[in-house]
């Protein structure tokens, strides 16, 4: 397997889990996302984007990192450009680091939906800020290693059919879930979390740093 980390411009809180998640990966930075590299102990092999959100300080600090410069008027975000480059370089697993928060809610939503769309094509992606972690769900089965009591939600991006949740405070069996439903929001891990889905697209968002007593 070839794991890549893409540094995005959202929020990053350095945690042990995040350090483990990015360990040993090849690294690409999307524009201002390179600001997270030092805190994570990473050095990007390529810096991509239109460079409208990087600073003179970052330009100087990472002057030796190879760049791929794009015009501001383009039909992809810097993050998607970096994702496509990771796949061109042979990525089999991608961690989108800094995918949440920041000044642009539209970018956060795009990261969630984009990752799910790529997962539907058979790609493996994880999104993380260190305090939040997201895993796209398409038809298939999934096992997660979250600690007992970890808060999680499943947000549907389409009609879901055959949704099973095991190892949770509120399990579900063969559930039909409509787009926009809040039924699967604010659950908690109780044992070994296992999710399966017959059809549809969704994303599981967990807070590994928020653990409840059960």
Automatic annotation (TrEMBL):
The keyword Nucleotide-binding applies. Transmembrane segments: none annotated. GO terms for biological process: thiamine diphosphate biosynthetic process; thiamine metabolic process. One of its GO terms (molecular function) is kinase activity. Its EC number is 2.7.6.2. The keyword Transferase applies. Keywords: ATP-binding, Kinase, Nucleotide-binding, Transferase. Residues 140-203 form the Thiamin pyrophosphokinase thiamin-binding domain. This is Thiamine diphosphokinase. It is an enzyme of class 2 (transferase). It comes from the Bacteria.
């Amino acid at each position: 397997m070839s794991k890549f980390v893409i540094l995005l411009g959202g929020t990053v809180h350095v945690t042990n889990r995040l350090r483990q998640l990015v360990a040993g990966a090849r690294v690409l930075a999307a524009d201002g996302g390179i600001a997270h590299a030092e805190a994570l102990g990473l050095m990007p092999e390529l810096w991509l984007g239109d460079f409208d959100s990087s600073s003179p300080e970052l330009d100087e600090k990472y002057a030796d990192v190879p760049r791929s410069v794009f015009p501001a008027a383009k039909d992809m975000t810097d993050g998607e450009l970096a994702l496509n480059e990771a796949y061109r370089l042979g990525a089999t697993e991608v961690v989108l680091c800094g995918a949440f928060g920041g000044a642009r809610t539209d970018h956060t939503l795009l990261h969630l939906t984009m990752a799910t769309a790529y997962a539907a094509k058979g790609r493996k992606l994880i999104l993380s800020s260190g305090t939040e972690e997201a895993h796209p769900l398409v038809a298939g089965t999934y096992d997660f290693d979250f600690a007992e009591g970890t808060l999680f939600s499943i947000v549907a991006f389409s009609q879901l059919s055959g949704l099973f949740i095991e190892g949770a405070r509120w399990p579900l069996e063969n559930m039909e879930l409509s787009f926009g439903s809040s039924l699967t929001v604010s659950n908690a891990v109780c044992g070994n979390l296992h999710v399966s889905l017959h059809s549809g697209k969704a994303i599981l968002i967990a807070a590994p740093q928020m653990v409840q007593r059960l």
